[in-house]
Amino acid sequence: MPVEITWWGHATCTVEDSGVRVLTDPLFARRLAHLRRRRGGAPAPRARVADVALVSHLHADHLHLPSLAELPPGTRLLVPRGAPEAVPGLRRLTGLDVTEVAPGDEVPVGGLTVRAVSALHDGRRLPLGPHRCPALGFVVSGAARTYFAGDTGLFDSLADEVGEVDVALLPVGGWGPYLGHGHLDARRAAVALARIAPRSAVPVHYGTYWPIGLDAVRPHEFHAPGDEFARQAARLAPEVAVHRLGHGESVRPEVAK
């Protein structure tokens, strides 16, 4: 069965592999605090159907409690170790099967194995969270090996930790005019792509949410990262097929035989 990747916007994707549906950083809201969804409608109802959901870190645009509450009862949920202590609302999602993981942990889900890997990103629940949890990426291994980076900056051991993969879901932007430490912009994401060297890549984490009232402030940071990543990837990793998806669009990338 072919592996299929669907991008719902921001860092939310469905990876369907070997009959198992994996959902990344579920975020279904039209508005989140000072952010509003500026491109694409809310994800289709089928986006909420998953065998396992992966949460990369504690920031509210990645660990969004109202969106997690929309997942069907019994859905498996992998979160950074310590997340239920740092975010007490997680403990109230009693219908979900929550498992805490740290880099190096492997969890079997159906015919897949999900391995947590490191990410270079702030692990606190901002703005006041005193608890630090590891920010994570995940490698989903089945018919394909798919790397979901979550939010991360470049770090020396990135490629070694991720290992050989077929597909990389890489953040290439953000939700505001400026990216701080621990993020990938389009150029740095292309550098990461060259280091990881997958067969295919899908740019994510851009072109979805933007602060209310800042539409005219550096608008290219909202619109341009996907195209800029494809341009930089063609220069730095020309052997990698880049699939720039619209919201709700899917791709069946080539995988190793």
From TrEMBL:
Family annotation (Gene3D superfamilies): Ribonuclease Z/Hydroxyacylglutathione hydrolase-like
InterPro entries reported in the protein's UniProt record: Metallo-B-lactamas, RibonucZ/Hydroxyglut_hydro, UPF0173_UPF0282_UlaG_hydrolase
PANTHER family for the chain: UPF0173 METAL-DEPENDENT HYDROLASE MJ1163 (PTHR43546:SF3), UPF0173 METAL-DEPENDENT HYDROLASE MJ1163-RELATED (PTHR43546)
Ranges where the Metallo-beta-lactamase domain occurs: 21-206
One of the Pfam families matching this protein, by short name: Lactamase_B_2
Source species: Streptomyces solicavernae
Protein name as annotated: MBL fold metallo-hydrolase
